[in-house]
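Renewal narrative, Specific Aim 1. Our central claim is that a sequence can be written position by position from structural information alone. The example that follows is taken directly from our test logs and has not been curated for this report. It begins with the C-alpha cells describing the chain, in the order in which they were read.
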C-alpha cells in the first residue's frame, strides 16, 4: 500500500495553530515522524478555516522542504492553492484533488501533465457523489479517458471513490469496496486507487479499530494506496500484514519490521 500521511492538515487544531503562528518546528516534526513511521508521501492541507490558503500552502511546502524531499500530496479544494503548492513541491508530486467537473478537471489535469505530477480524481460530478458503484466507475473511466488526451497514463491517476463517515452513512462503506473492485476493470493497466481512510471513523469512539478493519477489507478489494494516520502503530501493522496476505510481499518471521523498514528507506 502506498501510504500518504494525513497529519499535516489544518483540520487538526495543533496544525491549525502552527500554521497561524508560523511555527515551523511543529510542521517539520510531523513530516519527519510520519516518514519515520513508514509513509511514502505526505498530504499537505491548510484546513478549511484558513483565511489566506495560498500563502499558508506556500509556507507549509517551503517549511516541509527544509526537512525532507519526500513526495508531497498537495491537498486543497481550490485550484489556486494547489497550483501554488505544486509550483514549489516540484515534479513527482501528487495533486489532491480534482473532481470530474470539467471546470476543475481541465485545469488540474493540464497542470498534472505540464508539471509531471500524479492526479487524485474524486468520483464527484455536478450532482455530487453518485450513489451507485456503476456511476462512480463511469466517472472514473471518463476521467481516465480525458487524462489520456493530455498524455497522462491511467497509472498517473489515483481514483478516489470517496469514503464517508460510517456514523453518517453506514451503507456507503460497502459501496466504496465494490467501487474499488470496479476501478480495476476500467482500464488496462488499471489506475491506482486511494481513500481518505480516517473519514470513515470520524465521530465514532473506536476510530483506530474501524480504520484498521476497513483498510484490510479495502486491500482485499484492490486498494493500493491510502491517506491515513501513519502514527497509528496498530494500523501500520495491519497494513504490513495485508501485504503478506494479498501476496504483495514475501512472508518472513519479522514481516512487520521488514515491511516498515523497506518503507522507511523509500520515504527518507
Ligand atoms: N480523499 C482525498 N483527500 C483527502 C480525503 C479524502 N484529504 C483529507 C481527508 N480526506 C483525509 N485526511 C484526514 C485528516 C484528518 C481526519 C480525517 C481525514 C480527521 N481529523 C480529526 C477529526 O475530524 O476528527 C480532526 C480533529 C482532531 O483530531 O484534532 O479525522 O477522502 N483524496
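The sequence written for that structure reads:
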Amino acid at each position: 500500500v502506498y501510504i500518504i500521511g494525513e497529519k499535516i492538515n489544518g483540520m487538526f487544531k495543533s496544525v491549525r495553530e502552527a500554521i497561524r503562528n508560523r511555527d515551523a518546528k511543529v510542521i517539520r516534526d510531523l513530516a519527519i515522524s510520519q516518514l519515520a513511521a513508514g509513509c511514502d508521501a505526505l498530504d499537505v492541507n491548510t484546513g478549511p478555516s484558513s483565511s489566506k490558503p495560498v500563502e499558508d500552502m506556500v509556507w507549509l511546502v517551503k517549511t516541509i522542504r527544509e526537512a525532507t524531499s519526500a513526495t508531497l500530496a498537495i491537498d486543497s479544494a481550490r485550484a489556486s492553492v494547489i497550483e501554488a503548492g505544486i509550483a514549489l513541491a516540484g515534479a513527482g508530486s501528487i495533486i489532491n484533488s480534482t473532481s470530474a467537473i470539467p471546470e476543475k478537471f481541465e485545469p488540474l489535469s493540464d497542470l498534472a501533465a505540464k508539471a509531471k505530477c500524479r492526479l487524485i480524481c474524486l468520483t464527484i460530478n455536478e450532482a455530487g457523489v453518485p450513489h451507485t458503484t456503476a456511476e462512480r466507475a463511469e466517472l472514473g473511466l471518463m476521467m481516465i479517458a480525458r487524462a489520456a488526451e493530455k498524455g497522462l497514463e491511467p497509472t498517473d491517476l489515483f481514483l478516489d471513490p470517496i469514503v464517508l463517515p460510517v456514523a453518517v452513512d453506514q451503507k456507503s462503506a460497502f459501496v466504496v469496496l465494490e467501487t474499488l473492485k470496479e476501478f480495476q476493470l476500467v482500464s488496462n493497466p488499471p489506475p491506482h486507487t486511494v481513500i481518505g481512510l480516517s473519514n470513515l471513523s470520524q465521530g465514532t469512539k473506536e476510530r483506530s479499530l474501524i480504520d484498521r478493519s476497513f483498510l484490510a477489507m479495502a486491500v482485499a478489494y484492490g486498494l493500493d494506496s491510502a491517506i491515513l494516520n501513519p502514527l497509528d502503530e496498530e494500523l501500520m501493522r495491519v497494513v504490513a500484514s495485508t501485504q503478506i496476505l494479498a501476496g504483495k510481499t514475501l512472508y518472513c518471521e519479522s514481516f512487520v519490521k521488514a515491511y516498515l523498514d523497506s518503507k522507511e528507506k523509500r520515504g527518507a
